[in-house]
Write a structure and sequence with these properties.
CATH topology of the largest domain in chain A: Alpha-Beta Plaits
Shape of chain A: globular
CATH class of chain B: Mainly Alpha
Largest interface: A-B, 54 and 47 residues
Distance between the termini of chain A: 106 Å
Distance between the termini of chain B: 19 Å
Helix content of chain A: 25-40%
Largest sheet of chain B: none
Number of helices of chain A: 31
CATH class of the largest domain in chain A: Alpha Beta
Low-confidence stretches of chain B: 1-7
Number of helices of chain B: 15
Order of helices and strands of chain B: HHHHHHHHHHHHHHH
Number of strands of chain B: 0
Radius of gyration of chain B: 23 Å
Number of domains of chain A: 5
CATH topology of chain B: Formate dehydrogenase/DMSO reductase fold
Number of strands of chain A: 38
Strand content of chain B: under 5%
Strand content of chain A: 15-25%
Radius of gyration of chain A: 31 Å
Largest sheet of chain A: 7 strands, mixed
Oligomer: heterodimer
Low-confidence stretches of chain A: 1-27, 76-92
Strand order of the largest sheet of chain A: 5-4-16-15-14-6-7
Structural class of chain B: mainly alpha
Mean pLDDT of chain A: 88
Chain lengths: 970, 437
């Protein structure tokens, strides 16, 4: 072969094959040292050819660079954003170090309100959500739903292709369908077009809605959410003559009365309210505030309250009337009032403007009106409560779901657009929405899942997850938080903004749409403000201002309706785990023990012990519940503290098309929800004579007279453990840090945020209902719930129990292979690789905080995508014991950071995942070797005690006793 | 070798050397074999899927695994202690029951030995409990009762098998001498270790046999106590008691004796060895069983009284074990292991095959329930009420237990088929003595 022969690989291969025997080449260089190969190199890889005399260092440098760039290239989905050269991108990314997670501030919606969050993103993959300390609805804390959004983002059941009548279609086919339909509608000015969406606070969505309305002036908008505030709105319209939202300031309140609902779990500002209430309790210079909960179904606020008054829903109206009458709030005195009313009225009067009366969303509008009248009468407006413009503005002329049903029945709907949500499932059953939607000739559903609504609409379009699209949301007080994507879209989908943009004939570019909104508002200086708002996660100074309002002077309450005596009151409530059902396919939330029942993987009809006795049933017995002619079969749960002759049904279960995790779990309470009275209805109970097994993680709730939860009166001490700690083993020496934790039982409201934060941070497996039923759930942190007192109205206590990291850890000495050992900083480390799974450590743990991988829990249908895993935490194998590590990976990361800056770790620099999520700062973690650290100060508090301290395990996790005002002082 | 001796022990040797063995043996072996297959199936499913196929959970991290382990160890211990004492005391009874008592002990220890390994989450790493110079330089935790247990069980296997084997050597030589087929001769020959029956051999043999028997004595106390320590050393209120080792040793002895009695009765009946295991032997064994059952009864009483005297939580835990939802286990244990053996106050019962089998079986059952009651019932009351749960065994667990019983009976059946079940040299020795006196 001559030197000038044209180069060709086939020829080379042929020549190699033709040589005598296998030709061994000792190095690539040797093989490359042939003219034809040189030419190949020059043609194909000019850079390498140039650097032909590569030394080892250069080669390694090139290799590492290409690996790093390869990783970055993988982050770029390619269908959005710029296509700037990769090389310059990596050099121009300030603050980005490969392997170090990036934090992105954004907002997550719940019922249309925003909660500010910080998303920790590892190489472009969101892995953990924390609260945004700058956001008023979060202050750094999160609720369970925000934490669990990570899992929803990676949900494998999320829809990724448009569907037409259930068959997958290409996106081009979708546009081919939409374009003529849209043109047709534009010509007809939107006649026959009905758009159904949930109330939203998003300014961009509202801007796009008004554009769309201009384009389709005859289109009809319908607003529906199953978790509606219609009763409160009606009361506000009646009393103030206009629509308003309220923001409460619990730091100012001395006496708080809640009427149903759950101020600490279900209100838009619940995290903030819980935090503010605790802040108020911690004010040393003021007396403890008084919190009264008047409720049917036990709630978190009721568990925390100084006093609960258990009432059937139908008796609440009379109670508040009595209260309003004794406070002269424009109500005629009632003949017989509840015995607690005079005392409560006296406390409210004493508090004056520092009072607060809040009615929950399930209460009828008369109760809301009476509560507002009391607040007005005592001057609470301006102190503990302020009125603002509605955060979720009403779309002009928007109608209800009811009106939509009527319009479809009257064949007035030719085109139906369902923007998000799942109304076919969440609509009250008497509307029979699924079959109505089927009657609409052209219907399109935009949603994240191929859910119940997707299956009744002609077209289904995948919707983006809030973590992968642009938007904006207002918080409960109106503060705007920009919603920016924390990842490239994982599935091809459109956001509601983009879809409306498409309809309005604007650009289908979420970022552009949101920017346009704010460019309009901010005008000059947009760029700087935009950048700052993205960085902060909140738009500075965007909280809605208080507005002056006046309670109608001639307001008189509706005359009290006669209290009917028959039937059982049926109360509907959002579920603490799956909310309205939209989180049903989220394994973390399904397996999250509900705060008060500790039930997992299902719901139950909550009834009072008294009611259970009357019917002769116990938890797990099925009842047939009839409401307005519709019947469901549900297992009952005997709930201490529930009002008698009433039953609470939580929404969100019994899904048929939630996905592989959420299908067929629990029963569907929507099936008996009446559209006219969606929150409180009347029904009949019949014992079904069947048992439906319920799964719970805690079967015993009595304290059994043991010293587990300590309660002190204000200013009182708890008996201190003696310092005499005899032990055969010497004390451990700690030269630097000694980590410890203090958990304030006075602050804990039992909201579960810590449990799910721990699960997200530490890659804790979801094991599924069968395994939990066997007692094998894996949560490293559990919240024990105890009741004391009469079952009719008990006190409820919560106690988060992580690993105690005992100084004299009983688990350490019994492990035959030294798989659990004491670290130099006092952590009780678990060495997964060393563990052979004898489980004897769990036997010797008096707190039973150890969890065992009885089966391969990380390879099941419940296992999330590997992308959702925290790469800093080992994924545990089967046959291995695991437990709380005090987030040792966070300690390690903080230590590395401090070492780079050549300084000591600062107090508060290491936050455990549970601590960070806690809305009331009940959990404090730090160095107990530093006498000035926050945790050391708490451990010196007179309320501090060790759980099972007399065992001399010397736990590093200690508790602070709950403070209760003794009953006689009340 | 005299012709008298030849004739006196030939039925014993014939059993091992005969070509045919009757259909009952085959049926029994097939049944046991089926159970051994079940054992294989359950072991494989545990190995492939993990211990989650059992009913274990948090806090009941141990279930049938430890119950059966403790139970088999009890049988092994009781039987070998019994055999060792007979050897050391040169008791007449040893002639007739020693060999299979040793066999019972050895097979039971094999069954027991399965559990500590399969019960691990990662059984293939069981050798990490062994102190070997690993490259990662981690040693076992010598303070852990499980490490002690590792030593105890391995010592137990070695000593029990030695006791059995040393006792067998002269008889293996006899079998070698009498075997007709060459291969059989060779196998017995290798096992007989070149035994020629010289006086020096006999002298060494006696010394070795008794030496091993002496080793058994402390081992029994150590082994059962170590099993008991696995419970007593933990903080679990009902387990954390100093009386646990005594309870395990004494009830284990009763259980071992009862199984020896059960097997003796079955052999006597099945192999028609009435001449070798005579009425007097059986009567003596019956008395021993009765005595040990009385000791068990005393320990139950002691448990009750010490529970009443204990402090709050311990008392609550023990009383809830006796009266709570798992109380059935506790009372079953007492009825079967203490009350039923009282039949043996009657001489007729002691000498009846049916009664002997019944009592032997019932003590075995009773002690099994006792272990169940301790391991499961004892965990019912813990420090935090929030973690109280229940435990119920799964089919796989039950299959594993039945499987080990199958393995035990299969080994026993092979033993009676291929090895002399009654010590031939001891029988000859006895008969010589009788003749000379």
């Amino acid at each position: 072969m001559s030197e000038d022969a044209p180069f060709d690989l086939d020829a080379l291969a042929a020549r190699l094959a033709a040589e005598d025997g296998p030709r061994l080449w000792r190095s690539l260089e040797e093989l490359a040292d042939r003219p034809e190969l040189r030419r190949l190199m020059e043609a194909e890889f000019p850079d390498v050819f140039e650097a032909s005399s590569v030394d080892r260092r250069t080669l390694l440098r090139l290799m590492s660079a290409s690996l790093a760039l390869g990783g970055l290239a993988a982050c770029n989905g390619g269908d959005a954003g710029s296509h700037a050269p990769l090389l310059s991108q990596s050099r121009n990314m300030p603050g980005y170090t490969p392997g170090v997670p990036v934090t992105i501030a954004t907002s997550l919606p719940l019922n249309g309100f925003g909660r500010g969050v910080l998303v920790k993103s590892q190489e472009g993959r969101p892995i953990k959500i924390e609260g945004n300390p700058l956001h008023p609805a979060s202050l750094g804390a999160t609720d369970v739903f925000a934490q669990a959004e990570i899992l929803s983002l990676y949900d494998p059941d999320r829809s990724d292709t448009p569907l037409q009548d259930g068959s997958p279609r290409r996106w081009e086919e979708l546009t081919r369908f939409i374009r003529p339909v849209r043109n047709e509608l534009v010509v007809g000015e939107g006649r026959g077009l009905h758009i159904l969406m949930a109330p939203t606070s998003s300014p961009t969505l509202h801007r796009l809605i008004s554009y769309t309305r201009e384009l389709f002036p005859h289109a009809q908008w319908h607003v529906f959410t199953p978790i509606d505030d219609d009763a409160r709105r009606a009361a506000v319209l009646d009393g103030f003559g206009r629509d308003l939202d309220f923001v409460y300031d619990l730091t100012q309140a001395d006496t708080i009365v809640t009427l149903g609902g759950d101020l600490f779990a279900e209100e838009p500002g619940h995290l903030r309210y819980a935090a503010d209430y605790q802040k108020r309790r911690r004010m040393r210079d003021r007396e403890l505030p008084r919190l009264f909960a008047i409720e049917t179904r036990p709630s978190l606020v009721g568990a925390r309250a100084d006093e609960r008054i258990v009432l059937r829903p139908r008796d609440v109206d009379a109670f508040v009337r009595g209260l309003a009458a004794s406070l002269e709030a424009g109500v005629a005195p009632a003949p017989d009032v509840h015995p607690s009313v005079p005392r409560l009225a006296e406390l409210l009067r004493r508090a004056g403007p520092r009072c607060l009366v809040v009615a929950g969303r399930e209460m009828p509008s008369e109760v809301h009106a009476l509560a507002l009248a009391i607040n007005t009468r005592l001057g609470a407006f301006g102190t503990t409560i302020r009125a603002i413009e509605p955060v979720r503005p009403i779309i002009d002329g928007a109608q209800t779901l009811h009106d939509l049903a009527k319009a479809i029945e009257a064949d007035q709907v030719s085109h139906l657009l369902v923007l998000g949500g799942n109304p076919a499932y969440t609509a009250p059953a008497d509307l029979d929405l699924p079959s109505l939607i089927r009657r609409v000739p052209h219907s399109l559903h935009l949603g994240q899942h191929r859910d119940e609504t997707a299956s009744v609409c002609r077209w289904h379009v995948p919707e983006t997850h809030p973590l992968e699209s642009w938007g904006d949301l207002r918080a409960f007080d109106g503060t705007v938080g920009l919603r920016q994507p924390a990842t490239m879209p994982l599935k091809p989908a459109l956001s509601a903004e983009e879809f409306l943009g498409l309809m309005a004939g604007q650009t289908v570019d979420g970022q552009g749409l949101v920017q346009a909104t704010w460019r309009e508002v901010w005008g000059e200086g947009f760029e700087a403000r935009w950048a700052r708002s993205l960085e902060d996660g909140v738009v500075d100074g965007s909280a809605l201002p208080s507005i002056d309002i006046a309670w109608r002077s001639d307001w008189r309450p509706e005359p009290a309706a006669p209290v009917s005596s028959g039937g059982i009151d049926v109360v509907f409530a959002p579920d603490p785990s799956v909310w309205d059902g939209s989180y049903a396919n989220n394994g973390w939330l399904q397996e999250l023990p509900k705060p008060l029942t500790k039930q997992v993987w299902g719901n139950a009809a909550l009834i009072a012990p008294e009611t259970a006795d009357i019917f002769g049933i116990s938890s797990g017995d099925a009842i047939d519940l009839t409401v307005e002619g519709r019947v469901i079969r549900a297992p009952v749960w005997v709930m201490p503290g529930h009002a008698p002759a009433a039953v609470t049904l939580t929404l969100g279960y019994g899904r048929q098309q939630a996905g592989r995790i959420g299908n067929q779990i629990g029963f569907d309470a929507y099936a008996v929800r009446p559209s006219r009275r969606p929150w409180i209805a009347t029904g009949e109970i019949k014992v079904a004579g069947q048992r439906i097994p319920l799964i719970s993680t805690q079967h015993h709730h009595a304290l059994q007279g043991r010293d587990i939860i300590r309660v002190v009166a204000p200013g009182q001490d708890t008996p201190q453990d003696s310092d005499d700690r005899p032990s055969l083993y010497p004390e451990w020496p700690y030269e630097e840090h000694a980590w410890g934790m203090a958990i304030d039982l006075d602050a804990c409201i039992g909201c579960n945020a810590c449990v799910i934060a721990c699960q997200a941070e530490n890659n804790i497996a979801v094991v599924g209902p069968e395994e939990v039923a066997k007692g094998r759930e894996m949560h490293w942190l559990r919240v024990d719930r105890y009741h004391s007192g009469e079952p009719a109205d008990p006190s409820t206590y919560f106690q988060p129990v992580p690993c105690m990291h005992c100084e004299k850890a009983p688990c350490e000495v019994v492990c035959p292979v030294n798989a659990t050992v004491h670290s130099s900083e006092g952590l009780n480390d678990m060495v997964y690789n060393r563990c052979i799974g004898t489980r004897t450590c769990s036997n010797n743990c008096p707190y039973k905080v150890r969890r065992f991988n009885f089966l391969d829990y990380q390879g099941t249908d419940y296992t999330p995508s590997a992308d959702a895993m925290n790469p800093q935490v080992t994924v545990r194998d089967r046959g291995v014991m695991e437990k709380c590590t005090y987030c040792v990976q966070r300690i390690g990361a903080a230590r590395a950071g401090a070492r780079v800056e050549d300084r000591r770790l600062r107090d508060g620099e290491v936050m455990t995942a549970c601590q960070q999520a806690c809305p009331t700062q009940a959990i404090v973690f730090g160095d107990v070797n530093d006498p000035d650290s926050a945790v050391s100060r708490l451990k010196k508090d007179r309320r501090s005690y060790a759980l099972l301290g007399d065992l001399n395990t010397q736990p590093r996790t200690t508790y602070l006793a709950r403070i209760e005002i003794p009953a006689e002082e009340g | 070798m005299s012709s008298v001796a030849q004739s006196s022990t030939s039925p014993v040797a014939d059993v091992a050397l005969s070509r045919r063995f009757g259909s009952m043996w085959w049926i029994a072996l097939l049944a046991s074999g089926a159970l051994v297959l079940l054992l294989g199936y359950t072991l494989i499913s545990v190995a492939l899927l993990g211990v989650g196929v059992w009913g274990v959970n948090i806090p009941f991290v141990w279930g049938f695994d430890l119950i059966n382990y403790a139970w088999w160890i009890g049988i092994a211990n009781g039987a070998s202690l019994f055999a060792a004492i007979l050897v050391l005391r040169r008791h007449d009874l040893r002639t007739s029951v020693n060999r299979f008592a040793e066999g019972v002990a050895f097979f039971a220890v094999i069954c027991a030995g399965i559990f500590p390994i399969v019960h691990l989450g990662r059984p293939w790493l069981f050798y990490w409990t062994f102190p070997y110079p690993a490259t990662f330089q981690v040693w076992p935790q010598f303070r852990s009762t499980l490490t002690w247990d590792f030593w105890a069980i391995s010592t137990h296997v070695v000593v029990t098998s030695l006791l059995w084997y040393v006792g067998l050597i002269p008889d293996l030589a006899t079998l070698r001498d009498r075997a007709r087929r060459r291969t059989v001769k060779r196998i017995y020959g290798i096992l007989a270790l070149g035994w020629r029956g010289s006086v020096i051999h006999w002298a060494y043999h006696q010394r070795a046999y008794r030496l091993v028997a002496i080793l058994v004595l402390p081992l029994i106390l150590v082994m059962q106590s170590t099993v008991a320590f696995e419970f007593a050393v933990t903080l679990v209120p009902d387990w954390h008691e100093t009386r646990q080792p005594l309870h395990f040793v004494a009830t284990g002895l009763a259980q071992g004796l009862s199984i020896v009695l059960l097997v003796a009765m079955l052999l006597r009946w099945g192999l028609r060895l009435g001449r070798y295991i005579d009425e007097e032997d059986i009567d003596l064994l019956g008395r021993l069983v009765l005595a040990s059952a009385l000791v068990s009864g005393y320990l139950y009483l002691d448990e009750f009284i010490s529970a009443l005297l204990a402090d709050g939580l311990t008392r609550e835990a023990t009383i809830s074990r006796m009266t709570g939802s798992e109380a059935g286990l506790y009372w079953t244990a007492i009825v079967y292991s203490v009350v039923i053996p009282q039949l043996f106050w009657m001489k007729a019962a002691r000498q009846s095959t049916v009664a002997g089998v019944f009592v032997g079986f019932s003590i075995g059952v009773g002690i099994w329930f006792d272990r169940f009651s301790i391991i499961v019932g004892g965990l019912q009351t813990d420090y935090l009420p929030s973690i109280e749960r229940t435990y119920s065994p799964t089919l796989v667990e039950t299959g594993l237990f039945l499987g080990t019983i199958g393995l035990f009976t299969a080994l026993l059946l092979l033993f009676v088929r291929f090895l002399p079940v009654v010590s031939m040299f001891e029988t000859r020795h006895d008969e010589h003595q009788e003749k000379s006196s």
